[in-house]
Amino acid sequence: MHAHDVEAGRWHPNDRKPKTLMNSLTEKQIRASLRNASKREAAQATLPDLDALDWAQLDYLGWHDRKAPLSSYVVLELDGVPTGILLRSSDAKTGRARTKGVCAWCEDVVVTDDVSLYVARRGGASGRNGNTIGTLICTEFGCSRNVRRRPTFTEAGNDPAMRELITDRRIAGLRERAARFVAEVGKTR
Ligand SMILES: [Zn+2]
Asked: Which domain of life is it from (predicted)?
C-alpha cells in the first residue's frame, strides 16, 4: 500500500528519455556532411571501420585520421541531418596535444587526464579568412562511454531511477554541447 503510493507519485525516467539513438551513417553521408572541409579534404579523409561501430552507444562519431595524424573528425545529427566537422590538433609529434582538464562536451570528472585541444576552421567565408574555434574534448572521443558510466553511490545513492535520471541528463548534456559546437563551426557567415 505504502510502496504503491510512493510509486504512483514518482516521476518516471522513461518520460523523458533522450531522443533516439544515433542512426548509422554511410561513407558517402559522412564525406558529404563535413561542413568546414574542402571537397578535396572530404574526399581524402580516412574513415573508421563503420561496420565495426556500435551506433546505439554513440552520441556522436569522432575519430582520428590514421593517415593524417593532425586531422580528426566529428559527425553528429543536427535536426536529423548528418553534420560533420574537420578538427585539427597542434602537437606535431603525437598528433594530439594531450592535457589535463575537463572535456567541454561530456564534462566527465573521472577521465580528466586525457583531453586535447581541438581546433576547427569555421565554415564558409569566415573559415577561408582564417577564423577558427577551439575546444577541449576527450582525446580519444570517449564521451559517449563516459556519460554512460554507472553513477556512483555518492551521486545516485542506491536508487535505480535516480541512476537512470543522472545518466539520461548526462547523455542529453553531451548531445547538446557537442551539437552546439558543430553548429557554430558550420555557420557559413
Ligand atoms: Zn568527453
From this structure: Bacteria
